[in-house]
Amino acid sequence: MRNQPMLPKTNSPILIVTQQKLAPIFFILSGLVSSCITAPPSIPGIIEIEPSQTVVVEVFTPSPQMLESTPAQTSVNDAMEWFSSDRLGLCFSYPEGYTQIPYNDTAQIAAPLLGPGDEFGLFWFEISDSQDRTAEEVADQEENDVAGLNPGRWTVTLGGEQALVRDGMPGQELVRRVYIVHEQALYILTFSPTRSENTVASEQMEALYAAVTSSWAWSPCSAME
């Protein structure tokens, strides 16, 4: 009597295939595998891709102009103080506790120094003859004078008139500048700093921007006080 091979102990059923039955089973399994490869099931919502295909997916990335197309929204419901000048022909409000500092023939408004370092919110404005230029022409010229600038752009209403905004213009720090021509005079409003990593200074600048632009008015200003 021939010795039988020892089989491992297991709880699973064991299939013993004799040499005579091996060939038919092989062809049956081959047929099943072939049918699975040549006719894969179609599943709704699944894109079938051949192994040799290369799929390129385009991802939309907004440009810096689109990201900076609108300024951050800042509440202006806090207590305000007023700057008014009939001689300059304008008036506006700014947050209470900020300091009004003489600046050439106009003024500048400085936020209190609250955060680390020496950076704080600051606003000033300049008035000059427009020399028959539009606000857009002035803004474009300033932008073209410095290579590599990519400022954000939008419009804002000052005293019922449309003004242009360029965010990310050069200065001691990057600044936000507002351009408007009123009765042949060019007004440039500058807010600093913008795009700063100093959170406190950035929030102060946004508070100044929101207060000044939302309250700006042309003379006579006595009724605004």
Describe, in plain words, how this protein is organized in 3D.
The protein is of the alpha+beta class and 225 residues long. It has helices spanning 19-38, 64-67, 135-144, 199-215, and strands at 80-85, 90-95, 99-103, 106-110, 122-129, 152-158, 161-169, 175-182, 185-192, 217-218. It has a domain at 77-224: Protein Transport Mog1p, Chain A (3-Layer(aba) Sandwich), CATH 3.40.1000. It contains 4 helices and 10 strands, in the order ααβββββαββββαβ. The strands form 2 sheets. The protein has a 7-stranded antiparallel β-sheet, with helices on both faces. It has a 3-stranded antiparallel β-sheet with strand order 1-2-10. A hairpin with a 2-residue loop joins β3 (99-103) and β4. The longest helix is centred in the first third of the chain and has 20 residues, at 19-38. The protein is globular, with a radius of gyration of 36 Å. Residues 1-76 have low confidence and may be disordered.
Keywords:
225 residues; alpha+beta; Protein Transport Mog1p, Chain A; seven-stranded antiparallel beta sheet; three-stranded antiparallel beta sheet; 28% strand; disordered N terminus
Brief rundown of the structure:
It is globular, with a radius of gyration of 36 Å. With 225 residues, it is an alpha+beta fold.
